[in-house]
Amino acid sequence: PKVEQDPPVSNYHFVSADGQRKLNLTQSFIALSTLHYGGWEEFARRLDRPLAEFIRIYRPAYFERVGLRYVNIISRDKLGLRGSGWRELIAPAYLGPLNEPDVREEDFVSGGIDLQLKLDSSCQAKIHAGPARVQNNAPNAPQDNEVKFILDMDLSMGGNVDCTFSAGALETLHAHSTRLFEGAVTDRLRAAMD
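User: That's the sequence. What structure does it adopt?
Assistant: Structure tokens below.
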């Protein structure tokens, strides 16, 4: 038998002048990521044109997956909550071992829970939640020793999503993400985030 290798895939990266946003593009994939999330409306507006051009140029019959991912990094220091325990800020379902009364938070450096949830008939979410230190991998970058809480939510709609429904699919995923995030934080944390 003859082994044939897949042709290489060109992956183009377009970075905004301020370095805050990046658009990745292949012939079958488009993704927009941002380091500063100014809200759903702004994000959706920035994705609108590249997505429309992607559809116009490549004319895909459908999308196999439409996804939306939020990596929320919650800093007690930045929110003026130093000294508050995660039990006061995060819902018990997302705390895992930290919710146990005999676990001392100051001894818990990292860890967490992983969930995979069906959100409705076509949407699902993979969630990782737990405390961790965030490392800056840039050369000679100062490291932050604060233990933060990470709520990483990867929401997706699978199946053959018609291109004309891609914006609606993203809106549906966003609605699910809002519900999940609101369920993960306490009123005290919500008030501190304003």
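The chain has a mean pLDDT of 91.
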